[in-house]
Amino acid sequence: MKSTDRKSPLPRSPRLWAVIMAGGRGERFWPVGRAARPKQFVDLFGGKPLIAHAVERLRGLVPPERVLVVTSRALAAATRRALPSLPPSQILGEPCARDTAAACATATAWVRARAGDDAVLAILTADHLVADAAGFRRVLADAAAFAARRPVMALVGIRPTRPATGYGYVELGAPCAGAGLPRGFRKAKRFVEKPNLGAAATYVASGRFVWNSGMFVWRAGTFLAALAAHAPALAAAAGRLGAAFETGRPAAAARALDREYAHLEKISVDYAVMEKADNLVAARGDFGWDDVGAWPSAGDHLPRDAAGNAVSGRVETLAAKGCVIVNAQPGHLLAVMGAENLVAVHAADATLVCTREAAAGLKELVKKIAAASDGARYV
């Protein structure tokens, strides 16, 4: 995917903070991805890791001093190396994984401690691709303007391009109208988790649904109020974390994170808050978004040869067609012959070969490898 970054004026918006969620276990892009190098560190697209793309596409809308990355403590050092433009204090390491509700609550408390209830946050992802960076920024600016003027939480929905069954969908309701509000937003009526192909085709044909990108925009006070209404235990923990963040002492914040995370429920922000809230609005984004969730979709963003093979690294083919072939080992040659619709990926100490269709089950293979007597070294 070629990223376009056209210069265009953005709507007037409040001081926006960006929160980039950067967890992951490296399963979907094994063997290039590993537990210590999950998808956001994969650098097959444009020669830089996906997390660097996530920060750079904010340029002109959110400066580095207002970007917070929420990751695991185990990945904090690698994240700092990948993002040298960010102060180390803006890489927040969670002591254990508690899914997106905890990450959103913690990040919102962190921003609120610095900028108050009226601070506007964009909750973003570290491992997606966006073709039209300027269009992406425009949607975020509009959502920030809406969230600053009304007590709403805005979902960045994606206009569906196909009846995908691997995404969640959100049904749109009536248009949102009001003086000073940006156009194009609608009430969010309901969430639908990963429908079957027939239902997905119906949703796409109706024009009333968007894909749930997992990206949101809200005022700190608005989200914390929703958290208190729908997930009070998490809201209380966020309040205690906020008090620790307000001290400005990293050691106090680390102790608070250890204390609170040990007891937090592991739940997504969708289940904990969004699907229960009555103040959720949605934009219909159309900026070339892809979550590149598996090797076949990664192939859509790699160079192709005359036979339709998506290739990266030192590769030779003969009578191969429609394959995804990635050689991530310098000094090594990966050759594929007489194959069709295959995925072949070579890393320093492991090689994956499977059909494009089977690649969706890669997580199960990685679990099997990890369970082997010496499997930990490979995952």
Description:
The chain has helices at residues 50-56, 73-82, 99-115, 133-149, 197-206, 220-230, 232-246, 250-261, 269-274, 295-299, 362-371; strands spanning 16-21, 67-72, 91-94, 120-125, 129-130, 153-158, 169-175, 186-192, 209-219, 280-285, 289-290, 310-312, 315-318, 324-327, 334-337, 342-346, 351-355. β16 (342-346) and β17 (351-355) form a beta hairpin. The strands form 4 sheets. It has a 5-stranded mixed beta barrel with strand order 6-9-7-8-10. It has a 4-stranded mixed sheet with strand order 12-14-16-17. It is an alpha/beta fold. The protein folds into 2 domains: 16-290, Alpha-Beta Complex (Spore Coat Polysaccharide Biosynthesis Protein SpsA, Chain A); 295-378, no CATH class. The protein is globular and about 60 Å long.
List keywords for this structure.
single chain, 379 residues, alpha/beta, Spore Coat Polysaccharide Biosynthesis Protein SpsA, Chain A, five-stranded mixed barrel, four-stranded mixed beta sheet, 11 helices, globular
Short description:
This protein is of the alpha/beta class and 379 residues long. It has helices at 50-56, 73-82, 99-115, 133-149, 197-206, 220-230, 232-246, 250-261, 269-274, 295-299, 362-371; strands at 16-21, 67-72, 91-94, 120-125, 129-130, 153-158, 169-175, 186-192, 209-219, 280-285, 289-290, 310-312, 315-318, 324-327, 334-337, 342-346, 351-355. The relative contact order is 0.15.
Please specify the SSE layout and strand pairing:
Layout: E1 16-21, H1 50-56, E2 67-72, H2 73-82, E3 91-94, H3 99-115, E4 120-125, E5 129-130, H4 133-149, E6 153-158, E7 169-175, E8 186-192, H5 197-206, E9 209-219, H6 220-230, H7 232-246, H8 250-261, H9 269-274, E10 280-285, E11 289-290, H10 295-299, E12 310-312, E13 315-318, E14 324-327, E15 334-337, E16 342-346, E17 351-355, H11 362-371
Parallel strand pairs: 1-2, 1-4, 2-3, 6-10, 12-14, 13-15, 14-16
Antiparallel strand pairs: 4-9, 5-11, 6-9, 7-8, 7-9, 8-10, 16-17
